[in-house]
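Tutorial sheet, problem 5. The four components below are modelled jointly, 964 residues in total.
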Amino acid sequence: MIKVTVWNEFRHEKKDEEVIAVYPDGIHKCIAGFLENEKGISVKTATLDEPEHGLTGEVLENTDVLIWWGHMCHAEVSDEIAEKVYNRVLRGMGFIALHSAHFAKPFIKLMGTSCSLKWREGDFERLWVISPNHPIAEGIGEYVELENEEMYGERFDIPAPDEQVFISWFKGGEVFRSGCCWNRGLGKVFYFRPGHETNPSYHVPQIQRIITNAVKWAAPNQIIDEILCPNAKPSPEEKRA
Amino acid sequence: MIKVTVWNEFRHEKKDEEVIAVYPDGIHKCIAGFLENEKGISVKTATLDEPEHGLTGEVLENTDVLIWWGHMCHAEVSDEIAEKVYNRVLRGMGFIALHSAHFAKPFIKLMGTSCSLKWREGDFERLWVISPNHPIAEGIGEYVELENEEMYGERFDIPAPDEQVFISWFKGGEVFRSGCCWNRGLGKVFYFRPGHETNPSYHVPQIQRIITNAVKWAAPNQIIDEILCPNAKPSPEEKRA
Amino acid sequence: MIKVTVWNEFRHEKKDEEVIAVYPDGIHKCIAGFLENEKGISVKTATLDEPEHGLTGEVLENTDVLIWWGHMCHAEVSDEIAEKVYNRVLRGMGFIALHSAHFAKPFIKLMGTSCSLKWREGDFERLWVISPNHPIAEGIGEYVELENEEMYGERFDIPAPDEQVFISWFKGGEVFRSGCCWNRGLGKVFYFRPGHETNPSYHVPQIQRIITNAVKWAAPNQIIDEILCPNAKPSPEEKRA
Amino acid sequence: MIKVTVWNEFRHEKKDEEVIAVYPDGIHKCIAGFLENEKGISVKTATLDEPEHGLTGEVLENTDVLIWWGHMCHAEVSDEIAEKVYNRVLRGMGFIALHSAHFAKPFIKLMGTSCSLKWREGDFERLWVISPNHPIAEGIGEYVELENEEMYGERFDIPAPDEQVFISWFKGGEVFRSGCCWNRGLGKVFYFRPGHETNPSYHVPQIQRIITNAVKWAAPNQIIDEILCPNAKPSPEEKRA
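Model answer (structure tokens):
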């Protein structure tokens, strides 16, 4: 059983009518909803305004894969919680950063770059599959089309991905590395571009399939308690001479 | 002095009026022309219909970087010459494959994949710079626009590039990894997408700058005579125990 | 069910007493033996001296993952069969090249390099796990030790691996990238270093675990019938303007 | 002219006789010394105990490549200065982390991992060249041997390097990715393993050559003033429809 926690800033959905119309229970509930239908996955949610942002030590220690959606309030996430998330990724937890989470504290900390990009609301997006044999692209076909999304354009200031799964085309003239995999410590990290709060992308079956695939890909084979930097003895003499 | 040989199939330019209008002396002469203006580069040309396709042992042994343009007649390139080119790349020679050379024998041999793609004549292309600190992108700015080019679209069946310099946007809805670097043996390989025979892309200053940058990047620090697979003695005992 | 074919040159084991003592039924039978014990894997074998080297069209079309061991007789493998294997990898089949298969025709064709290296019989090898979160390293711990193996040393002339799972240490003073992953077309390729014919490495439980893990990792999510290079229509007008 | 600043913790060399014997003027002066002999490079030094650790805004803004040696006192480097260094790397400055700088604040921040490893004082090291065509390996031959060095062993918890230049062999049984390149933002980052304070590695001509090569490789083609995340207008209509 893969234990997933879906974290959401959950502010837009409390006050912005346009967003409430699309995600009445919050983006986290929408994502948790389709993941719960999947065999082998159990799901919880956590949000910014809960104590410790809903990410207590106990919650984190019971999370195999953390999904993160944030936008306006990255700065309100405490450095301490961001550090705990970061540390758990290095120890093995999977981490899936969605859309504007490119600027989330734990994501930037894992990347070591500014993660800046170009942006514009309201465009047509086509996500092309670049690595059709990648587990995250399984069952997707050649591309996904989203009629209305926020544009994110290159240059996206990230480290070269270990694996490039999707590259997006936008009507307005931009391209974007929209599905990127990295290893950090023992953890697997996936950045997935779509999901502006006023667009119903997380209701699209192909997008749901990609996020579900990503959860399975990011699930750890081990999460260790501590990262050590040990003084090591040499190999026994008889193995060397 | 970097010794460059520009190889061209040189068939379109002998019989197709539309191509002759754009490249009256052949694509190779156009490319050789702007490279010759560059300090530190000396240029020769070679074409398919010359003996040994112009790539005699002597020519190859005096080539640091080989630029290759081919389209209709890949199959007419002899396996022996393709093998010689391939072998010299592994020994250190730089290799720049232009446009439809994605299907050239030496390129496919270096890649180990089919190098297939989608295509369509007549589109608008914008090449976005993905790696602005790469030597091949020096002086290019954010992107290059080409008013009229053949479209090449993903999925491009290549090994994941060691470095991704450009990704193209096409008006018709496609993206393409249009500037890709690989190391093969001691040689550096660059694939660069633009250059359909009926479009004047090699007359565009930014494109000329990119090809010139690529020549400098691909220039070898050594070309060896032979690739060995030696039986090796162990390190002396005193260094081990 | 993952359909595995284990291919072996199977010449050493017919005439060399020292090899027969280690692999009385051939290396292929040893490998098939431990794979057969694994749930979800079905195994066949094929050898050089069978008609079409045991790799008829029917056999290949029923193979999800091909394991290859060859040494003395790479040149006796027909170009036609090598080409068929290569082509099926690009269409999705997994390919695991063992030990001296670094010089096997299909492997060299997939790499696009010489695959040369240094070598010496009789050494102590320790394979360090570099990517502990990789599925191929699952359950292996920090390293594997092999008391007696042929040494393979750098520089190994391969393209930079997409994923580096193991790096070996040899008593005599060498290092080697001994577990390397690449994607080629839709196929996954794994090179794994150990397995000299006079050393019992394929009897070692950790080595068996690694090869079993590699089979699962290399199993395709799809194998296509044909690789196309299609002329593509532009996206409909209403999605672009 | 490449403007290099060599930063050193410079504490060992003030109090430890064994270190003073090897680097009487400090490690920074030794490195600055051999770099100053190189045409096209100008060198300054900076140390921990200077105001702002010698890395004032003016110094940083006049540094193209920053070399960093630190060991005992990583925690004494102020977060503010570490952040300024990190930010300037993203804007284009080259960064070379030496030996125990694997734990330096700016390096960890650029990597996004723990950078932990195994260690042991007193071993024989052989650094094998893995990428002989890389500019940093130019003129080095097959390997470098260091009679006495601190051992650093895998697993080294770093992101997969963009380019792997060296892998080390240690007598005691370990391997280590000892020369690693990454791009971060517009900056180039090189980690180079040797250089324990009691061992004379920076006096070794091959090591000096490698560091000199690395300075040239890491020199930026541009350093920008600010990293933006701009709202972007769509491409003009006539380029799209």
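Marking note: The first strand of chain C starts at residue 2 and ends at 8. Full credit if you identified this.
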